[in-house]
Write a structure and sequence with these properties.
This protein is an alpha+beta fold. The protein folds into 2 domains: about 90 residues, Alpha-Beta Plaits (2-Layer Sandwich), CATH 3.30.70.580; about 90 residues, Alpha-L RNA-binding motif (Alpha-Beta Plaits, 2-Layer Sandwich), CATH 3.30.70.1560. It has 3 helices and 12 strands; from the N terminus they run E-E-E-H-E-H-E-E-E-E-H-E-E-E-E. About 30% of the residues are buried.
Length: about 190
């Protein structure tokens, strides 16, 4: 049976197992051999990374053609108005072409762990939280989309990939998913 792990990737951790420059990687947190990320998160993004030892499953999760939804929480500069939200929902033109439509909405600030270092704070400029659901996975897509509508992303967290979420996982924690019944258990249980 193949293995499937859920990992809450901390800020500044690379989404790979090795780094010649000695930066933090998945290997610093996940002592499980032969699992690989099904998709990536940038070092400056946090949140859910799904790992598996099954190449077909890895492809099914990460291939944009399969349109597996991914939910992101983005803390943005300023407060997006209805026009900005509508643009995100309709798809945004980026330098590599238009994005697919996204589900987008303002949300209350989620209860999260503190980020180290914290985001930059400007007394004169408020921030807001957006929830974006994407079915494609371009490089730095959420950041580019929010910037294109005038609200640069300050903090980005991937909350969910398909049916899996970060619920119950603190930064740096992982758990295995019991594939018989879909439940998850923490490492070491």
């Amino acid at each position: 049976m193949s293995r499937l792990l859920l990992f809450n990737k901390p800020y500044r951790v690379l989404c790979r197992f090795t780094d010649r420059e000695g930066r933090p990687t998945l290997a610093d947190y996940i002592p499980v051999p032969d699992v690989y990320p099904a998709g990536r998160l940038d070092a400056d993004s946090e949140g859910l990374v799904v790992l598996t030892d099954d190449g077909l499953r890895q492809h099914a999760i990460s291939d944009p053609q399969n349109k597996m939804p991914k939910i992101y929480w983005a803390q943005v500069e300023g407060v997006p108005d209805l026009r900005a939200i509508s643009r995100l929902r309709g798809g945004v033109r980026l330098n590599d072409g238009p994005t697919a439509p996204a589900r987008a909405r303002l949300i209350d600030p989620p209860h999260l762990w503190p980020r180290t270092p914290p985001i930059r704070y400007r007394k004169e400029i408020p921030t807001a939280w957006l929830e974006l659901t994407l079915t494609e996975g371009r490089n730095r897509q959420v950041r580019r989309m929010t910037a294109a509508v005038g609200h640069p992303t300050l903090r980005l967290i991937r909350w969910a990939v398909g049916p899996w979420t970060l619920a119950g996982l603190q930064p740096g924690e992982w758990r295995a998913v019991d594939q018989d019944n879909g439940s998850a258990k923490r490492a070491g249980e």
